[in-house]
Amino acid sequence: MPGMKKILSMIGSESQQQIMVKGKTVETIGYLLASVKTHPELFEADCKEIMESMMKMSLTMDFDNSMHKPIFIVYENVSTSLKENFAVYAQHIYPLVIKSANRTVEFTIIEEGDVSKAEALKKKNNSYAAYKLDLKIDGVKSLVLNTDHLAQKIEATNLIVQMAEDMGHSFSSYIEQTIPTVK
Q: Which of 111, 114, 144, 148 could cysteine-pair with 127, CB 3.0–4.6 Å?
């Protein structure tokens, strides 16, 4: 874990490559935590520092930043280990989690021959991907969507479920905020 923390502190966020390395490092921290989640005492000493670092990063970055997804993975694994004690962190992160779960995923459906529109979206933002769909009746179309937004929305939803399962009664104060999201 010390190596991962060192990488996070050394790597900037100026280039797409740095952002990707940082994201994969955070994701790796999440998976390391997942591997020891049944033995929280193995990372208990690091837990507070990890959560404070992730919250600082997550709560100060732009809402569209792709780093939210791996940070949510870390939160899920810490929640699993801390159970009801995760409540001390939940109060800080929940507004962002709900906002992410409710986010709109931008997409468009275009004709197969109109690749220029799909390419323009992908050039504008690397987060867009195009998927061909053969609708049989209506012919081949391309679905172009922002995959970073979709991933953030999925992980936020997973995190809400994880928190509800792990925190038990401590989650009750978040139910009212959560209901409009799951309707």
A: 148
